[in-house]
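User: Can you help me understand a structure? I only have the sequence.
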Amino acid sequence: MDPVRNPYAPGAGQRPPELAGRDDQVRAFEVVLERVARGRPERSLVLTGLRGVGKTVLLNALRGQAVRKGWGTGKFEARPDQSLRRPLASALHQAVRELAHPEPDQAEHVLGVIRSFAERQAGPDAKLRERWSPGIDVPAVRGRADSGDIEIDLVELMNDVGGLAADLGKGVAVFVDEMQDLGADDVSALCAACHEVSQSSLPVIVVGAGLPHLPAVLSASKSYSERLFSYQRIDRLTRAEADRALTAPAADEDAAYDEAALAAMYDATGGYPYFIQAYGKTVWDLAPHTPITAADVAVAAPEAERELAVGFFGSRYDRATPGERDYLRAMADAADPDADLHDPVGSVATADVAGVLGKKPQSLSPARDSLLKKGLIYSGERGRIAFTVPHFGKYLRAQG
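Assistant: Let's start by predicting it. Here is the structure, written out as tokens:
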């Protein structure tokens, strides 16, 4: 086996293992693109799932579909405590440039509106060092998307961008990763803008990806959000899909796995794409020849687990404060370790966590809220919390 040509390494040039099993989403998005391009109403799209299920890779694949259709696209990652204006302006700037409009004056007007939208964040009296340059060469269009009310401004902006795309007979798609980290006002504004462009049949859609509680975030913002978005839960792969994620890249390198090796890989990874990629890379590097066997998987497993402990689990654990780490370990202790296979996120009651720590639930609210904000845990239902990372509880229990 040639480690230099590892088909599971990031940037290897092969089809990413995480995309295996996502054919339904790819086909459904193809229909969305066609419907919107023909001026027919269609909902924007929201992908939800745990860390490590390949949401970002799928988001990038869907963006690639839009680009191949001649759409203008832009992407950004939402961050806590960051305003929507600047990253969205950058994404729309790129989208308008990709449209390659044959009438420069009209494109320049829309770019001026994008600039106006972005510059409004600093305010009219901001000092030069506080201003942000969006890299747009045209002057800002005053009186458009610059009222200071994010909902009014975003509706105006999306209408102008959508009008430009409609003139071209094309579309614009904005891709938002970590969408649950948008602020409450920004979520509300984005929902209002999606509603407006849908009502006007403008060819603009938003494709968001986020943690499992993202639908609740959107619903809390606008009661009609369930009508704006098509929600698709992205989960672990089935055994057949996981096998394909391993065997297809290997076949491109004239290698194969025997049946026992595939079974061992699925047992080790649980079908989670990130784990499949991590194990696939390590097994490939260490296996001496093809076909790869279950013995090769057993030899590579400790190294794969070490890499996951550092890069996947450890990097997240290190973001927590000492008090938050106590809360995380208490969550792991409160969960049933025997249920790890069918409940890999370790869903537990907040009262049980408090019981493990010997404290009142109210006193732990700051730690819990901070962990929620950092995206290390989420609340799928009232009074219960769970890890956003599958098998995180198992990792914490192994640390002692």
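Now, to help you interpret it: The CA atoms of residues 99 and 300 lie 47 Å apart. The longest strand covers residues 204-210. Let me know which part you'd like to focus on.
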